[in-house]
Amino acid sequence: MMLVVGGTGELGGQVVRQLVERGVDVRCLVRSAGGIPGAELVTGDLTDPASLRKACAGTETVVATATAIGRLLAGVRGPSIRETDELGMLALVDAAEEAGVRRFVYVSYAGVDAGLGVPIEHAKLAVEDRLRRSAMRYVVVRPDAFQEIHLGPLGRFDLAHGKVGVIGNGNAKHRWVSTADVAALIAAVAVETDPPELIEFGGPEALSRTEAIAFAENVLQRKLKVQRLPAAVARPAIKLLSRRNEAVASVLGIGLLFSLQDVPWTDEPLRSRGIVPHPTTDFLRAQAAQS
């Protein structure tokens, strides 16, 4: 039995579907009753340790994709990043270890060790450290920025309204990755015989935010309004917001990563598993066509 925590989210939902298609017995932790085809449901929450112990009982592998960021950015009230992504995930690791779980697959993000001091960075690093000290075999999956988020309206890349945002200079090359490709990799390593402890990866194209803007303008045949936030302004803003709005501070911090340095990781972890990654330029063309 494999437990997926975060199975009702976009990434986790795709992971569940892929695991079910592979014939894996999947259990999902959910806050309320709802249909997840092919999966056993157990009611609970990351902020409820007792429900985590119940969910982990009898499972061999835990896949953790859950995060509070999307909900908080959407203005939905609920537990904070610290309560969910940090304390809740740490409680999940404890529950899994106590239940005798053999493997724990955890989703972090590429560049999490950049030292920006944002809440999501602190939470992810705390969980990674706890996993390294656990008795379980763990796999930390660190994907680069998701195309659908950081090159969409939520990531201040709004082609429909002709407005994009850049934090810092936006010149560092990243490998924006498709959510579907990340889900495929997670599903693969969850069942691999001998997976690595850390997988840091991205999509097939090394592209800066500045280059992504130029490409979109070329496809659209018009200029976009670029709103810039200098790094010198972003850093104190991130520090201030970390105490007032964890989600926004975390997004600003991740956005600042796009100006720091070219990334060293590649799409090899995808291709070596037979996953053909989706190019960022194809995603941008599709977004432009819908604008």
Furnish the topology, listing elements before pairings.
Layout: E1 2-5, H1 10-21, E2 26-30, E3 39-43, H2 49-56, E4 61-64, H3 69-73, H4 81-98, E5 103-107, H5 119-132, E6 137-143, H6 147-150, E7 157-158, E8 163-167, E9 173-174, H7 179-191, E10 198-201, E11 207-208, H8 209-220, E12 225-229, H9 231-244, H10 246-256, H11 268-271, H12 280-289
Helix pairs in contact: 1-7, 2-4, 4-5, 8-12, 9-10
Q: Give a short account of the largest sheet.
A: 7 strands, parallel
Shape: globular
Q: Helix and strand string, N-terminal first?
A: EHEEHEHHEHEHEEEHEEHEHHHH
* H/I helix tally: 12
Helix content: 40-55%
Strand content: 15-25%
- Extract low-pLDDT stretches: none
Q: What is the number of strand segments? A: 12
Cα-atom Rg, whole angstroms? 19 Å
* Whole-number mean pLDDT: 95
Q: Kindly, what is the distance between the CA atoms of the first and last residues, rounded to a whole number of angstroms?
A: 43 Å
Structural class: alpha/beta
Description:
The strands form three sheets. The chain has a seven-stranded parallel sheet with strand order 3-2-1-4-5-6-10, sandwiched between helices. It has a three-stranded mixed sheet with strand order 7-8-12. A two-stranded antiparallel ribbon has the order 9-11. Helix content is 43%, strand content 17%. The protein has helices at residues 10-21, 49-56, 69-73, 81-98, 119-132, 147-150, 179-191, 209-220, 231-244, 246-256, 268-271, 280-289, and strands at residues 2-5, 26-30, 39-43, 61-64, 103-107, 137-143, 157-158, 163-167, 173-174, 198-201, 207-208, 225-229. Helix 2 packs across helix 4 (81-98). It is an alpha/beta fold and 291 residues long. The mean pLDDT is 95.
